Amino acid sequence: MAKLTKKAKVLAAIDREKLHGVNEAIALAKANATSKFDETIEIALNLGVDPRHADQMVRGVVTLPKGTGKTVRVGVFARGAKAEEATAAGADVVGAEDLLEIVQGGKIEFDRCIATPDMMGLVGRLGKVLGPKGLMPNPKLGTVTMNVGEAVKAAKGGQVEFRVEKAGIIHSGIGKASFPADDLRANFDAFVDAILKAKPTGAKGKYLRKVAVSSTMGAGIKVDVAEVSAS
């Protein structure tokens, strides 16, 4: 019952119909992150796209300047010198056929997966395992590359992937409630800017329709889109 009461208080503290300025919305999200753990501050954007059409897909990567606050485990498929490069850069799991067998056995100990181009024939066998989890390496996202060291550092240093869902919504964490408000604003701006730049050719009408922020356990706080973009 205590949890329900707490949630009711959080909901009562927010006018869910009011449009807030970005800084005000972030401040409210931080103030309502009262759990015992460090909640993630999340952003959700409703876009005027239908991702069922290839020319309306929105997908890419963005580096949040202030980091994510999360520990990202990185797995790398590589051999020889490239495997050593990945390990030196801080990759958590590195391998080839041995890593393939581990993943096929149902053990996935990474949140991002990187592969050198020559390994994609091998990694392709894991499509049914990695695909549904959004872990399949993709050259467009910089996760199929010979620069594995740079890719590993980027993944651990605040780079996040984004992909629009069926309903035209993109959501992502932009930091932790413990972050200074200015850091969350910097990450917010970087994420929104990346989404705007990723506007697909097939998008019709208003592209950025709704924006909201929240904490992991908190209610959604509507942001005034006019302040975010004139799109």
Overall outline: globular
**What pattern of helices and strands is seen along the backbone?**
HHEEEHEHEHHHEEHEEH
Mean pLDDT: 90
Strand fraction equals: 15-25%
Major sheet details: 4 strands, antiparallel
The quaternary structure here is single chain
User: What is the first-to-last residue Cα distance?
Assistant: 44 Å
What low-confidence regions span 5 or more consecutive residues with pLDDT below 50? Answer: none
Helical content stands at 25-40%
Based on secondary structure, the structural category is alpha/beta
Rounded to an integer in angstroms, the radius of gyration calculated over CA atoms is 19 Å
Commentary on this structure:
The structure is a single chain. The chain has 231 residues and is an alpha/beta fold. 33% of the residues lie in helices and 21% in strands. The protein is built from nine helices and nine strands. The protein has helices at 2-12, 22-31, 80-89, 97-104, 120-123, 127-130, 148-156, 181-197, 225-228, and strands at residues 40-47, 59-63, 74-77, 93-95, 112-115, 159-163, 169-176, 208-215, 221-223. The strands form three sheets. A four-stranded antiparallel beta sheet has the order 7-1-8-9. It has a three-stranded parallel beta sheet with strand order 4-3-5, with helices on both faces. A two-stranded antiparallel sheet has the order 2-6. The longest helix is centred in the last third of the chain and has 17 residues, at 181-197. The radius of gyration is 19 Å and the shape is globular. The termini are far apart. The mean pLDDT is 90.
